[in-house]
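ugh ok so i messed up the first submission bc i forgot one of the chains. this is the corrected input, ALL of the components this time, i swear. 456 residues overall. if the numbers dont match what u have on ur side tell me asap before i send this to the collaborators (the ones from the other lab, u know who)
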Amino acid sequence: MNSLLLTGGRVVDPANHLDSVADVLLRDGKVAAVGKNLSAPAGVEKFDVRGKVVSPGLIDLHVHLREPGQTAKENIATGTAAAARGGFTSVVCMPNTSPSIDNAGTVALIQERAKNEGLVNVFITGAISKGIAGEELAPIGGLKKAGIVAITDDGHCVQNNDLMRRACEYAKMFGLPVMDHCQDYSLVTDGVMHEGYWNVALGLRGWPSAGEEMIVARNILLAELTGAKIHCQHLSAAGSVALIREAKKRGVSISGEACPHHFTLTDAAVAGSEKFWSDDGKQLLRGANRPSWPAYDTHFKMNPPLRSARDREAILEGLADGTIEILCSDHAPHCDYEKEVEFDYAPFGITGLETELALSLMQLVHTKRLSLPDMIAKFTVNPARLLNLNKGTLGVGADADVTVFDPEHEWVFEREHSASKSKNNPFFGWTLKGKVLATIVGGRRVFVEQAELAAV
Ligand SMILES: [Zn+2]
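and heres the new structure output, hopefully the right one now
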């Protein structure tokens, strides 16, 4: 079967505390050996990856693949193609499809489609509540039996604290983590952007930070009460980071994730590029080109919203000190016609699979806030540990899921290069630093940047 020897790369495998120049031999879909000067058995193809980073295949635990039911936006084939381009060998899909993933049949359907059409591994989350309506628990045991890796009502948030408590108790019983989109509806109402200076200046309704922090605090209390593992999704507010930092010190089973848009952009971006670059964007993209966009551009509308520079700084600090252990995209495809409306009416969300590695390198590693191994851990061993996935390592015998990238390579992200069906991304035209060269899933090359990576 497919064999491949990657020679001379910087192998970074946080699960095994490895960071050194080495060869990696992949054989029969598994990692066969990692070491210096490995000799290739006869007939094995070789890739010279000197000067490049060889990492365990990256995992994105927050992706909307939109199948079933919303395939005008994305489907399993296109979503996993975007993942492969972005360096991701595993994605975890969210249950707010149509119908939602609140029953074993839908889990089976996605498993079948992923097996036939998926370019990368697809792991599935189930809903907390039936129809993601927040009223009645979904059959959590049946969903677990069908193969889900966590429960979440992502896109929505269970408001009834007792229902959430019961969900936590069931999830714990079945060994499932609970992931939560933290949003208090009574505080957020119909807010469309961060409540601060810019929403007032722009005349848009505000989505206050407290609307997130309130639910993060609730989740900390419920994790303590039930002992369930609760994971707070796409953190955006400084107060959320402070709450989780304090709770983790006390040993509470709480964790969090952050998305590149929240630690790169701010709410000033909604006022247009000029305001953003002259205000909060000053330190970004030193010397590089500065793309422009108008005020009220709906590609800067997401949930939770872009927040202030102070919040952005707090997210970066939380990532640097280990409070936030996981990086992900919240890849949320929407059709052009849906986004090409007034800001109030546009759906929340942007695509992110193809830009998240570069943006994370730029904001965390190139700025020296985080070492390269620490950043890679947040894309590999940490999400694997949270979801009990047998992934995220280059240990001998592990699945041959590997990502090869050049952290220094500068490139411009262009709309026509995106493999996603939807093009709702705010970073088109941006010069990004850090490029994926090869994505290998179970020993199969699912994406190779031919110009950069030559077989030898
Ligand atoms: Zn969400």
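quick check: The first strand starts at residue 3 and ends at 13. that seems consistent at least. Residues 154-155, 181, 233-234 surround zinc ion (CB under 6 Å).
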